[in-house]
What we know:
Blueprint: H1 39-47, H2 51-58, H3 71-79, H4 83-105
Amino acid sequence: TKKVFDTGHNEQWKLEAACRGLDTNMFYLEKGTSARSSIKAKNICIKCPVHKECINQYHDEDVGIFGGLSPKQRRKWRKLKSSEERELYQQMCFKDFLIYSRQEEAGYIDR
């Protein structure tokens, strides 16, 4: 079991993280795993009060879901220049994810 916050950092924001104390294996998916597998982790991140702090801290991670973004999404996020662009991109990713998960729940997407 990997723990998101076993890095030795002790920033105060981590005490408010929605994933704090959870088994965080769901945040570390195998390469090539379907987007569907990240639904549980992303649902936690979207509701987290410190998702912005998380993505700012862990944007360079090559694996796992951080701040609600996958490694591929974080690579795109890093290329954006302004904090406003990054915030809009993260919101767009959240919106796309919510649409996908609702469509799946409604049976429009095969499981």
